[in-house]
Amino acid sequence: MENLKENQNEYILQLKGIMKSFSSVKVLKDITLTLKKGEILGLVGENGAGKSTLMNILGGIYQRDSGQILLKGKEFEPTNPKVSGEAGIAFVQQELNLFLNLSVYENLFITEMKKNRLGVIDKNTMKKITQSKMAELGVTDIPADALVGSLPMGKRQMVEITKSIMRNAEIIIFDEPTTSLSNTEKIKLFDIMHKLQAQGKSIIFISHILEDIFAETDEIAVLRDGEIISQTKTSDTNTNIVIKQMVGRELTNIYPKCEKTVGDIAFEAKNICQAGRFDNINISIREGEILGVFGLMGAGRTELLRCMFGLDPMTSGHLIYKGKEITPVTPQNCIANGMAFITENRREEGLLLPKTLRDNVVLANLKELASKMSFINTAEEKKETDQMVEELSIKTFDASRQVAGTLSGGNQQKIVFAKWVLREPKVFFLDEPTRGIDVGAKYEIYSIIQNLAKNKSCILMVSSEMEELMGVCDRIIVLSRNVITGEINKGEFTQELIMKYAVGGTK
Amino acid sequence: MEQIKKLIKSTDAIFWFLIVFFIVSLIIVPGFSKTSTIKSVLSQSCVLMTLACGVHLTVLNGGVDFTSAALLALTSVIGGSIVSTNGPFGGSAAGIILGLVVMMAIATGFGALNGFSIVNFKMPSFIVTMATQMIANGLAVVYTGGMTVTGIPDALCHFGSGGFGIIPYTLILALAVAIVLHIILSRTLFGRQLYAVGTNPKVSQVSGISVKKTIFKAFLISGICAGIAGIIMLCQMESGSVNFGGTMFNDIMGSIIVGGTSPAGGRGKIPNTVMGAILIAMIGVVFNILNVPYYFIILIKGLIILVAASIDIVAVKNSNSH
Question: Which residue range forms the structural domain that includes residue A479?
Answer without folding.
Answer: 265-338+425-436+453-500
